Amino acid sequence: MEDFRSRRRFLKSAAALVGSTAAAPLISCSRPATAAPSSLVARPSTLSLPGLEQPVNIWSYDGESAGPLLRFKQGEMLDIRFRNELPQPTSVHWHGIRMPNEMDGVGSVTEPGARPGEEFHYRFAMHDAGLYWYHPHMNSEKQIARGMFGAIVVEEANPPFADREIIWTLFDWGLTAEGQIPEDKAFQLWRGFHDYTAHDIITTNGRTAPDIVLKRGERVRLRIVNCSSNRRYALDFGGHDPWIIAWDSHGVEPQRLGDRPLMVGNGVRVDLMLDGVGDPSVPHVISDVFDHAVYDETAAAEPICAIRYDTARLRPDGELERPRPPARNPFTLPDLTSDPERIPIRMTQDLHEVRDIPDIGGIATLLAAEQGVAPDQKVAVWKLNGQVLFEDLRSFQCINPTPLFECKLGRTYILELANDTPTDHPMHLHGHTFQILSKNGRKLPHPMWRDSFTLIKGDRMEVAFCADNPGDWMVHCHRGLHSHGGMMSIFRVT
Ligand code: C2O
Ligand code: CU
Protein backbone atom coordinates (compact mmCIF):
# COMPACT_ATOMS: atom_id res chain seq x y z
CA MET A 1 0.00 0.00 0.00
CA GLU A 2 3.01 2.22 0.37
CA ASP A 3 2.83 3.88 -2.99
CA PHE A 4 5.89 4.87 -4.89
CA ARG A 5 6.66 5.95 -8.38
CA SER A 6 5.92 3.38 -11.01
CA ARG A 7 8.59 0.80 -11.35
CA ARG A 8 11.10 0.58 -14.12
CA ARG A 9 12.46 -2.55 -15.64
CA PHE A 10 16.02 -3.47 -14.90
CA LEU A 11 16.63 -6.10 -17.49
CA LYS A 12 20.33 -5.39 -17.77
CA SER A 13 21.19 -6.09 -14.18
CA ALA A 14 18.59 -8.83 -14.07
CA ALA A 15 20.17 -10.67 -16.96
CA ALA A 16 23.61 -10.22 -15.42
CA LEU A 17 22.49 -11.74 -12.15
CA VAL A 18 20.76 -14.69 -13.69
CA GLY A 19 23.88 -15.38 -15.72
CA SER A 20 25.92 -15.55 -12.55
CA THR A 21 23.56 -17.67 -10.49
CA ALA A 22 22.08 -20.01 -13.06
CA ALA A 23 24.27 -22.84 -11.82
CA ALA A 24 23.35 -22.35 -8.16
CA PRO A 25 22.09 -25.48 -6.41
CA LEU A 26 18.41 -25.94 -5.69
CA ILE A 27 17.94 -24.83 -2.13
CA SER A 28 14.96 -23.46 -0.36
CA CYS A 29 15.15 -19.92 1.00
CA SER A 30 13.58 -20.83 4.28
CA ARG A 31 15.26 -22.12 7.40
CA PRO A 32 13.88 -25.26 8.96
CA ALA A 33 11.24 -24.50 11.53
CA THR A 34 12.46 -24.76 15.08
CA ALA A 35 10.27 -25.10 18.11
CA ALA A 36 10.50 -21.94 20.19
CA PRO A 37 13.42 -22.28 22.60
CA SER A 38 13.12 -21.65 26.31
CA SER A 39 16.34 -19.68 26.40
CA LEU A 40 18.06 -17.13 24.24
CA VAL A 41 21.58 -15.80 24.66
CA ALA A 42 22.95 -12.58 23.24
CA ARG A 43 26.65 -13.08 22.56
CA PRO A 44 29.49 -12.19 20.22
CA SER A 45 29.96 -14.61 17.34
CA THR A 46 31.24 -14.72 13.77
CA LEU A 47 29.55 -15.02 10.40
CA SER A 48 31.02 -15.89 7.01
CA LEU A 49 29.69 -13.81 4.17
CA PRO A 50 30.32 -14.29 0.46
CA GLY A 51 33.23 -12.41 -1.04
CA LEU A 52 34.93 -11.82 2.29
CA GLU A 53 38.13 -13.59 3.29
CA GLN A 54 37.58 -13.31 7.03
CA PRO A 55 34.44 -14.05 8.97
CA VAL A 56 32.68 -10.94 10.26
CA ASN A 57 32.70 -10.36 14.01
CA ILE A 58 29.05 -10.02 14.87
CA TRP A 59 26.78 -9.86 17.86
CA SER A 60 24.15 -12.56 17.79
CA TYR A 61 21.30 -14.40 19.39
CA ASP A 62 22.47 -17.95 20.16
CA GLY A 63 25.57 -17.45 18.02
CA GLU A 64 23.61 -16.96 14.82
CA SER A 65 22.52 -14.13 12.60
CA ALA A 66 19.68 -14.26 11.82
CA GLY A 67 18.90 -15.52 15.31
CA PRO A 68 16.71 -18.60 15.72
CA LEU A 69 13.30 -18.48 14.04
CA LEU A 70 10.76 -18.57 16.86
CA ARG A 71 7.57 -20.36 15.89
CA PHE A 72 4.35 -20.47 17.86
CA LYS A 73 0.73 -21.34 17.38
CA GLN A 74 -1.67 -18.48 17.94
CA GLY A 75 -2.49 -18.26 21.65
CA GLU A 76 0.68 -20.02 22.84
CA MET A 77 3.03 -18.49 25.42
CA LEU A 78 6.40 -17.13 24.61
CA ASP A 79 8.46 -18.17 27.64
CA ILE A 80 12.14 -17.37 27.21
CA ARG A 81 14.93 -16.84 29.69
CA PHE A 82 17.20 -14.34 28.06
CA ARG A 83 20.85 -13.97 29.06
CA ASN A 84 23.16 -11.18 28.06
CA GLU A 85 26.73 -12.24 27.27
CA LEU A 86 27.55 -9.06 25.38
CA PRO A 87 29.98 -6.50 26.77
CA GLN A 88 27.20 -3.91 27.12
CA PRO A 89 23.58 -3.79 28.30
CA THR A 90 20.84 -5.03 26.00
CA SER A 91 17.16 -5.96 25.99
CA VAL A 92 14.90 -7.93 23.66
CA HIS A 93 12.01 -6.15 22.00
CA TRP A 94 9.35 -8.27 20.28
CA HIS A 95 8.47 -5.99 17.42
CA GLY A 96 4.78 -5.75 16.59
CA ILE A 97 3.52 -8.05 19.33
CA ARG A 98 0.85 -6.82 21.73
CA MET A 99 1.81 -7.83 25.25
CA PRO A 100 1.94 -6.36 28.77
CA ASN A 101 4.17 -3.29 28.88
CA GLU A 102 6.77 -4.82 31.22
CA MET A 103 7.51 -7.51 28.60
CA ASP A 104 8.06 -5.06 25.73
CA GLY A 105 11.84 -5.12 26.13
CA VAL A 106 12.63 -1.44 25.91
CA GLY A 107 15.70 -0.97 28.10
CA SER A 108 15.30 1.86 30.65
CA VAL A 109 11.64 2.39 29.72
CA THR A 110 9.81 -0.92 30.27
CA GLU A 111 12.64 -2.76 32.06
CA PRO A 112 16.09 -1.82 33.35
CA GLY A 113 17.79 -3.81 30.59
CA ALA A 114 20.12 -6.77 31.14
CA ARG A 115 23.67 -5.75 31.99
CA PRO A 116 26.50 -8.10 30.96
CA GLY A 117 25.91 -11.44 32.68
CA GLU A 118 22.32 -10.65 33.65
CA GLU A 119 19.12 -12.41 32.70
CA PHE A 120 15.56 -11.36 31.96
CA HIS A 121 12.58 -13.67 31.82
CA TYR A 122 10.16 -12.83 29.01
CA ARG A 123 6.79 -14.49 29.27
CA PHE A 124 3.59 -13.49 27.51
CA ALA A 125 0.82 -14.89 25.32
CA MET A 126 0.88 -14.52 21.56
CA HIS A 127 -2.65 -13.30 20.99
CA ASP A 128 -2.21 -12.33 17.35
CA ALA A 129 -1.04 -14.51 14.48
CA GLY A 130 1.43 -13.17 11.97
CA LEU A 131 5.06 -12.47 11.23
CA TYR A 132 7.03 -10.51 13.84
CA TRP A 133 10.64 -10.08 14.78
CA TYR A 134 12.87 -9.53 17.78
CA HIS A 135 15.78 -7.19 18.21
CA PRO A 136 17.60 -5.21 20.93
CA HIS A 137 16.03 -2.00 22.21
CA MET A 138 19.11 -0.50 23.84
CA ASN A 139 21.75 1.10 21.66
CA SER A 140 19.61 -0.54 19.03
CA GLU A 141 21.01 1.18 15.95
CA LYS A 142 24.42 -0.35 16.65
CA GLN A 143 23.29 -3.62 18.16
CA ILE A 144 20.97 -4.40 15.25
CA ALA A 145 23.66 -3.35 12.75
CA ARG A 146 25.94 -5.93 14.38
CA GLY A 147 23.53 -8.70 13.45
CA MET A 148 21.04 -8.95 16.31
CA PHE A 149 17.63 -9.85 14.91
CA GLY A 150 15.41 -12.85 14.33
CA ALA A 151 11.96 -13.64 12.97
CA ILE A 152 8.92 -14.81 14.92
CA VAL A 153 6.05 -16.65 13.27
CA VAL A 154 2.75 -17.04 15.05
CA GLU A 155 0.78 -19.51 12.99
CA GLU A 156 -2.87 -18.94 12.20
CA ALA A 157 -5.26 -21.69 13.29
CA ASN A 158 -6.42 -21.82 9.70
CA PRO A 159 -3.73 -20.38 7.42
CA PRO A 160 -4.46 -19.24 3.88
CA PHE A 161 -3.60 -21.90 1.33
CA ALA A 162 -0.01 -22.08 0.06
CA ASP A 163 2.16 -25.00 -1.05
CA ARG A 164 5.02 -23.82 1.13
CA GLU A 165 6.34 -20.90 3.07
CA ILE A 166 9.54 -18.90 2.70
CA ILE A 167 10.57 -16.43 5.40
CA TRP A 168 13.02 -13.68 4.63
CA THR A 169 14.75 -11.57 7.23
CA LEU A 170 16.12 -8.89 4.92
CA PHE A 171 19.32 -7.45 6.30
CA ASP A 172 22.01 -5.18 5.00
CA TRP A 173 25.58 -5.69 6.24
CA GLY A 174 27.39 -2.38 6.07
CA LEU A 175 31.06 -3.32 6.40
CA THR A 176 34.39 -1.53 6.32
CA ALA A 177 37.06 -2.16 3.66
CA GLU A 178 38.42 -4.84 6.03
CA GLY A 179 35.04 -6.56 5.97
CA GLN A 180 34.11 -5.73 9.55
CA ILE A 181 31.27 -3.82 11.15
CA PRO A 182 32.43 -0.25 11.65
CA GLU A 183 32.77 0.95 15.21
CA ASP A 184 31.71 4.41 14.15
CA LYS A 185 29.86 5.19 10.99
CA ALA A 186 31.75 8.33 10.11
CA PHE A 187 30.61 10.36 7.16
CA GLN A 188 33.66 9.54 5.05
CA LEU A 189 32.21 6.06 4.71
CA TRP A 190 28.76 7.25 3.79
CA ARG A 191 28.42 6.78 0.07
CA GLY A 192 24.75 7.09 -0.48
CA PHE A 193 21.35 6.93 1.04
CA HIS A 194 21.71 3.63 2.82
CA ASP A 195 25.17 2.79 1.79
CA TYR A 196 27.59 4.24 4.28
CA THR A 197 30.22 1.57 4.11
CA ALA A 198 32.70 -0.13 1.79
CA HIS A 199 30.89 -3.47 1.46
CA ASP A 200 27.16 -3.53 1.42
CA ILE A 201 25.88 -7.09 1.45
CA ILE A 202 22.18 -7.94 1.46
CA THR A 203 21.27 -11.21 3.15
CA THR A 204 18.08 -13.08 3.86
CA ASN A 205 18.27 -15.22 7.00
CA GLY A 206 21.96 -14.36 7.36
CA ARG A 207 23.21 -15.52 3.98
CA THR A 208 23.04 -14.55 0.36
CA ALA A 209 19.45 -15.18 -0.66
CA PRO A 210 19.19 -18.51 -2.46
CA ASP A 211 17.17 -18.47 -5.66
CA ILE A 212 13.49 -19.22 -5.30
CA VAL A 213 12.90 -22.31 -7.39
CA LEU A 214 9.23 -22.64 -8.24
CA LYS A 215 7.31 -25.53 -9.66
CA ARG A 216 4.89 -24.47 -12.37
CA GLY A 217 1.54 -23.69 -10.81
CA GLU A 218 2.98 -23.63 -7.31
CA ARG A 219 1.95 -21.03 -4.71
CA VAL A 220 4.57 -19.87 -2.22
CA ARG A 221 3.80 -17.72 0.78
CA LEU A 222 6.77 -15.35 0.86
CA ARG A 223 6.96 -13.60 4.22
CA ILE A 224 9.36 -10.70 4.42
CA VAL A 225 10.58 -8.67 7.38
CA ASN A 226 13.01 -5.79 6.99
CA CYS A 227 15.46 -6.22 9.88
CA SER A 228 18.02 -3.77 8.52
CA SER A 229 19.26 -1.10 10.82
CA ASN A 230 18.97 1.65 8.23
CA ARG A 231 18.23 0.26 4.80
CA ARG A 232 14.76 0.37 3.29
CA TYR A 233 13.83 -1.77 0.30
CA ALA A 234 11.62 -1.39 -2.73
CA LEU A 235 11.40 -4.87 -4.20
CA ASP A 236 10.90 -5.53 -7.88
CA PHE A 237 9.77 -9.09 -8.58
CA GLY A 238 11.25 -9.48 -12.03
CA GLY A 239 8.03 -9.77 -13.99
CA HIS A 240 6.09 -11.64 -11.30
CA ASP A 241 3.08 -10.01 -9.75
CA PRO A 242 2.64 -11.40 -6.24
CA TRP A 243 -0.49 -10.98 -4.18
CA ILE A 244 -0.14 -8.96 -0.99
CA ILE A 245 -2.21 -10.69 1.69
CA ALA A 246 -0.94 -9.11 4.92
CA TRP A 247 1.01 -6.10 6.15
CA ASP A 248 2.66 -6.16 9.59
CA SER A 249 1.06 -9.53 10.42
CA HIS A 250 -2.52 -8.45 9.72
CA GLY A 251 -4.56 -9.58 6.74
CA VAL A 252 -5.55 -7.10 4.05
CA GLU A 253 -7.93 -7.36 1.12
CA PRO A 254 -5.63 -9.33 -1.25
CA GLN A 255 -4.30 -7.18 -4.03
CA ARG A 256 -1.70 -7.73 -6.66
CA LEU A 257 1.44 -5.70 -6.27
CA GLY A 258 0.95 -4.30 -9.76
CA ASP A 259 3.38 -2.14 -11.66
CA ARG A 260 5.41 -0.67 -8.81
CA PRO A 261 7.98 -1.97 -6.38
CA LEU A 262 7.08 -3.30 -2.94
CA MET A 263 8.21 -0.78 -0.36
CA VAL A 264 9.42 -2.39 2.86
CA GLY A 265 10.50 0.10 5.52
CA ASN A 266 12.55 -0.85 8.55
CA GLY A 267 10.58 -3.06 10.90
CA VAL A 268 7.80 -3.59 8.35
CA ARG A 269 6.53 -7.09 7.49
CA VAL A 270 4.65 -8.14 4.41
CA ASP A 271 3.11 -11.46 3.41
CA LEU A 272 2.95 -12.30 -0.27
CA MET A 273 1.58 -15.11 -2.34
CA LEU A 274 4.05 -15.71 -5.14
CA ASP A 275 2.57 -17.89 -7.85
CA GLY A 276 4.65 -20.04 -10.19
CA VAL A 277 3.01 -18.76 -13.34
CA GLY A 278 5.97 -16.93 -14.91
CA ASP A 279 7.72 -17.77 -18.14
CA PRO A 280 10.30 -20.46 -17.27
CA SER A 281 12.41 -19.63 -20.31
CA VAL A 282 13.30 -16.05 -19.35
CA PRO A 283 15.25 -14.72 -16.36
CA HIS A 284 13.43 -13.29 -13.35
CA VAL A 285 15.28 -11.40 -10.66
CA ILE A 286 14.05 -10.01 -7.38
CA SER A 287 15.93 -6.77 -6.86
CA ASP A 288 15.95 -3.76 -4.59
CA VAL A 289 15.16 -0.56 -6.49
CA PHE A 290 14.69 1.70 -3.49
CA ASP A 291 17.18 4.43 -4.32
CA HIS A 292 15.96 4.48 -7.89
CA ALA A 293 12.29 4.53 -7.01
CA VAL A 294 12.48 7.09 -4.23
CA TYR A 295 15.55 9.27 -4.62
CA ASP A 296 17.66 8.89 -7.70
CA GLU A 297 16.42 7.87 -11.14
CA THR A 298 19.95 6.91 -12.15
CA ALA A 299 20.51 4.53 -9.23
CA ALA A 300 20.94 0.90 -10.24
CA ALA A 301 18.83 -2.02 -9.08
CA GLU A 302 20.52 -4.33 -6.61
CA PRO A 303 19.75 -7.98 -7.22
CA ILE A 304 18.71 -10.11 -4.24
CA CYS A 305 18.04 -13.47 -5.86
CA ALA A 306 16.51 -15.01 -8.94
CA ILE A 307 13.17 -16.76 -9.37
CA ARG A 308 13.74 -19.92 -11.39
CA TYR A 309 11.54 -22.77 -12.53
CA ASP A 310 11.66 -26.43 -11.89
CA THR A 311 10.62 -28.65 -14.76
CA ALA A 312 7.84 -30.10 -12.62
CA ARG A 313 4.30 -28.82 -12.81
CA LEU A 314 2.16 -28.88 -9.69
CA ARG A 315 -1.14 -27.72 -11.18
CA PRO A 316 -2.43 -25.82 -14.18
CA ASP A 317 -1.80 -22.08 -13.86
CA GLY A 318 -5.49 -21.23 -13.99
CA GLU A 319 -6.22 -23.28 -10.88
CA LEU A 320 -4.61 -20.78 -8.52
CA GLU A 321 -7.44 -18.71 -7.18
CA ARG A 322 -7.42 -15.30 -5.60
CA PRO A 323 -5.83 -15.97 -2.19
CA ARG A 324 -7.63 -15.54 1.07
CA PRO A 325 -6.14 -13.19 3.68
CA PRO A 326 -5.36 -14.41 7.20
CA ALA A 327 -8.28 -13.99 9.61
CA ARG A 328 -8.49 -10.80 11.66
CA ASN A 329 -6.55 -10.83 14.91
CA PRO A 330 -8.39 -10.20 18.20
CA PHE A 331 -7.22 -6.65 18.94
CA THR A 332 -9.69 -3.94 19.97
CA LEU A 333 -11.03 -1.98 17.03
CA PRO A 334 -10.92 1.81 17.28
CA ASP A 335 -14.34 3.38 17.76
CA LEU A 336 -14.53 5.92 14.96
CA THR A 337 -18.14 6.84 15.61
CA SER A 338 -17.37 8.81 18.77
CA ASP A 339 -15.44 11.70 17.19
CA PRO A 340 -12.09 10.59 18.63
CA GLU A 341 -9.51 13.07 19.86
CA ARG A 342 -6.99 14.00 17.18
CA ILE A 343 -3.29 14.27 17.96
CA PRO A 344 -1.04 16.02 15.43
CA ILE A 345 2.52 14.69 15.19
CA ARG A 346 4.85 16.76 13.08
CA MET A 347 8.17 15.28 12.01
CA THR A 348 10.96 17.75 11.42
CA GLN A 349 14.68 17.92 10.93
CA ASP A 350 16.31 20.91 12.61
CA LEU A 351 19.87 22.14 12.52
CA HIS A 352 21.62 22.85 15.79
CA GLU A 353 25.07 24.00 16.81
CA VAL A 354 26.90 20.98 18.19
CA ARG A 355 27.46 22.86 21.45
CA ASP A 356 23.71 23.46 21.83
CA ILE A 357 22.89 19.74 21.79
CA PRO A 358 22.84 18.25 25.27
CA ASP A 359 25.86 15.96 25.15
CA ILE A 360 24.09 12.99 26.66
CA GLY A 361 26.76 10.32 26.83
CA GLY A 362 28.45 11.64 23.71
CA ILE A 363 25.44 11.89 21.39
CA ALA A 364 26.39 15.34 20.06
CA THR A 365 29.88 14.15 19.19
CA LEU A 366 28.50 11.03 17.53
CA LEU A 367 25.95 12.91 15.44
CA ALA A 368 28.65 15.38 14.36
CA ALA A 369 30.93 12.50 13.32
CA GLU A 370 28.15 10.66 11.46
CA GLN A 371 27.18 13.78 9.59
CA GLY A 372 30.77 14.82 8.95
CA VAL A 373 30.43 18.26 10.51
CA ALA A 374 33.15 20.20 12.27
CA PRO A 375 32.55 21.25 15.88
CA ASP A 376 31.70 24.80 14.76
CA GLN A 377 29.09 23.63 12.21
CA LYS A 378 25.51 22.56 12.65
CA VAL A 379 24.20 19.01 12.95
CA ALA A 380 20.78 17.73 11.97
CA VAL A 381 18.50 16.55 14.75
CA TRP A 382 15.30 14.64 14.07
CA LYS A 383 12.23 15.67 16.03
CA LEU A 384 8.64 14.73 16.77
CA ASN A 385 6.56 17.82 17.63
CA GLY A 386 9.78 19.71 18.27
CA GLN A 387 11.01 17.28 20.89
CA VAL A 388 13.83 14.76 20.89
CA LEU A 389 14.62 11.71 22.95
CA PHE A 390 18.26 10.69 23.14
CA GLU A 391 19.68 7.54 24.62
CA ASP A 392 22.76 8.07 26.78
CA LEU A 393 25.54 6.41 24.81
CA ARG A 394 27.42 5.33 27.93
CA SER A 395 24.62 3.91 30.04
CA PHE A 396 22.20 3.26 27.13
CA GLN A 397 19.40 4.75 29.20
CA CYS A 398 16.73 7.00 27.69
CA ILE A 399 17.01 10.10 29.82
CA ASN A 400 13.66 11.27 31.27
CA PRO A 401 11.38 10.56 28.37
CA THR A 402 8.54 13.08 28.23
CA PRO A 403 5.40 11.63 26.64
CA LEU A 404 4.71 12.92 23.15
CA PHE A 405 1.03 12.36 23.93
CA GLU A 406 -1.09 10.77 26.63
CA CYS A 407 -4.11 8.49 26.24
CA LYS A 408 -6.95 7.41 28.48
CA LEU A 409 -7.24 3.65 28.68
CA GLY A 410 -9.94 2.33 26.36
CA ARG A 411 -10.34 5.49 24.27
CA THR A 412 -9.81 5.83 20.56
CA TYR A 413 -7.33 8.37 19.17
CA ILE A 414 -6.45 9.56 15.70
CA LEU A 415 -2.85 10.50 15.08
CA GLU A 416 -2.25 13.00 12.30
CA LEU A 417 1.30 12.43 11.16
CA ALA A 418 3.02 14.98 8.95
CA ASN A 419 6.46 14.35 7.51
CA ASP A 420 8.01 17.79 7.07
CA THR A 421 11.53 16.46 6.61
CA PRO A 422 13.44 15.87 3.36
CA THR A 423 13.47 12.07 3.73
CA ASP A 424 11.40 8.97 4.53
CA HIS A 425 10.63 7.63 8.00
CA PRO A 426 9.31 4.17 8.81
CA MET A 427 7.44 5.06 12.00
CA HIS A 428 6.75 2.39 14.60
CA LEU A 429 4.48 2.44 17.63
CA HIS A 430 4.67 -0.17 20.35
CA GLY A 431 1.99 -2.20 22.08
CA HIS A 432 -0.94 -1.39 19.81
CA THR A 433 -2.27 -2.09 16.34
CA PHE A 434 -3.23 0.91 14.25
CA GLN A 435 -5.68 1.38 11.44
CA ILE A 436 -4.42 3.58 8.62
CA LEU A 437 -7.37 5.80 7.76
CA SER A 438 -5.94 8.02 5.06
CA LYS A 439 -2.81 8.93 3.24
CA ASN A 440 -2.32 12.39 1.76
CA GLY A 441 -6.03 13.12 2.08
CA ARG A 442 -7.13 9.91 0.36
CA LYS A 443 -9.14 7.45 2.40
CA LEU A 444 -7.99 3.87 2.25
CA PRO A 445 -10.55 1.75 0.38
CA HIS A 446 -10.03 -1.24 2.71
CA PRO A 447 -8.95 -1.30 6.34
CA MET A 448 -5.26 -1.81 6.95
CA TRP A 449 -3.81 -2.66 10.36
CA ARG A 450 -0.23 -1.77 11.06
CA ASP A 451 2.37 -1.13 13.72
CA SER A 452 4.98 0.28 11.36
CA PHE A 453 4.32 2.54 8.40
CA THR A 454 6.47 4.66 6.14
CA LEU A 455 5.94 8.33 5.46
CA ILE A 456 8.02 9.68 2.62
CA LYS A 457 8.88 13.36 2.32
CA GLY A 458 5.75 15.48 2.56
CA ASP A 459 3.42 12.59 3.43
CA ARG A 460 0.40 13.11 5.64
CA MET A 461 -1.19 10.10 7.31
CA GLU A 462 -4.11 9.57 9.67
CA VAL A 463 -4.01 6.49 11.86
CA ALA A 464 -6.51 5.42 14.49
CA PHE A 465 -6.14 3.09 17.44
CA CYS A 466 -7.80 2.11 20.66
CA ALA A 467 -5.47 2.79 23.60
CA ASP A 468 -6.24 -0.51 25.33
CA ASN A 469 -2.81 -1.42 26.65
CA PRO A 470 -1.60 0.57 29.69
CA GLY A 471 1.99 1.73 30.02
CA ASP A 472 4.66 3.92 28.49
CA TRP A 473 5.16 2.80 24.90
CA MET A 474 7.79 3.81 22.38
CA VAL A 475 6.96 5.75 19.24
CA HIS A 476 9.90 6.26 16.92
CA CYS A 477 11.37 6.19 13.47
CA HIS A 478 12.88 2.75 12.83
CA ARG A 479 15.83 4.06 10.80
CA GLY A 480 18.57 3.66 13.37
CA LEU A 481 20.34 6.86 12.41
CA HIS A 482 17.12 8.81 12.96
CA SER A 483 15.97 7.18 16.18
CA HIS A 484 19.30 7.74 17.86
CA GLY A 485 19.35 11.19 16.23
CA GLY A 486 16.32 12.19 18.31
CA MET A 487 13.25 10.88 16.45
CA MET A 488 11.99 8.85 19.38
CA SER A 489 9.50 9.39 22.10
CA ILE A 490 7.01 7.60 24.29
CA PHE A 491 3.23 7.74 24.52
CA ARG A 492 1.52 7.05 27.82
CA VAL A 493 -1.67 5.02 28.26
CA THR A 494 -3.26 5.24 31.74
CU1 C2O B 1 11.39 -2.66 16.19
CU2 C2O B 1 10.89 0.25 18.94
O1 C2O B 1 11.19 -1.23 17.61
CU1 CU C 1 13.41 8.52 10.21
Tally of alpha and pi helices = 5
Strand content: 35-45%
Q: What's the number of extended β-strand segments?
A: 31
Radius of gyration over alpha carbons?
A: 22 Å
* Backbone structural class: mainly beta
Give start-end ranges of low-pLDDT stretches. 1-33, 186-195
Bound molecules: CU-O-CU linkage, copper (II) ion
Q: Could you tell me how far the N terminus lies from the C terminus, measured between alpha carbons in angstroms? A: 32 Å
Biggest sheet character: 7 strands, mixed
The overall pLDDT, averaged over residues, is 88
What helical percentage do the residues reach? under 10%
Please state the overall shape, judged from the principal axes of the Cα atoms: globular
Sum this structure up briefly.
Strands 20, 21, 23, 25, 26, 27 and 29 form a seven-stranded mixed sheet that branches. A six-stranded mixed sheet has the order 10-9-12-17-14-15, with no helix packed on it. The protein contains five helices and 31 strands. It is mainly β.
Characterise this structure.
By secondary structure, the protein is mainly β. It is built from five helices and 31 strands. The strands form six sheets. Strands 20, 21, 23, 25, 26, 27 and 29 form a seven-stranded mixed sheet that branches. The longest helix has 11 residues, at 11-21. The protein is globular, with a radius of gyration of 22 Å. The chain binds CU-O-CU linkage and copper (II) ion. CU-O-CU linkage (C2O) is lined by residues 93, 95, 135, 137, 267, 428, 430, 474, 476, 478.
